[in-house]
Write a structure and sequence with these properties.
Layout lengths: L2 E4 L1 H15 L13 H20 L5 E4 L19 H14 L6 E2 L1 H21 L1
Parallel strand pairs: 1-2
Antiparallel strand pairs: 2-3
């Protein structure tokens, strides 16, 4: 079974990227920031996940991780993202997404989690 490790922050960025693609945004990779080489590698990974979601595939599973994971390992500044502030960032976003660090999700389950997250956010904004 294939496994991709993503931090909760990268799961959220994946959600923004897939949402931008679904809206036919002209440059959806720019929601991820960083240099063009980093974007190219993230785009390849994220596009593969989108293809898996659309086909209903169970693989690759996505493990919710902290520290240096599959996207971070490709970043030229990867040594900057492993401290306590990053751990707190990951834990906070995991709580917002309703995921648990260490758990894994199929692409379809990940899509459902992101849709639920966006729906809860939309509902919360309506109450403000």
């Amino acid at each position: 079974m294939d496994m991709i490790k993503l931090t909760p922050g990268h799961v959220l960025r994946f959600g923004m990227y897939s949402f931008a693609k679904s809206l036919d945004v002209s440059n959806p990779s720019y929601v991820m920031g960083f240099d063009s080489g980093m974007r190219a590698r993230q785009v390849e990974l994220y596009d593969g996940l989108i293809d898996s979601m659309q086909s209903g595939a169970e693989d690759p599973r996505v493990e919710i991780a902290t520290g240096l994971e599959d996207v971070c390992k490709q970043c030229p500044g990867k040594g900057n993202c492993s401290g306590d502030a990053c751990k707190t960032h990951d834990e906070t976003i995991a709580e917002m997404l309703g995921v648990t660090i260490g758990d894994s999700y199929s692409p379809t389950e990940l899509n459902s989690l992101l849709l639920s997250f966006y729906a809860r956010g939309h509902e919360a904004h309506r109450k403000v």
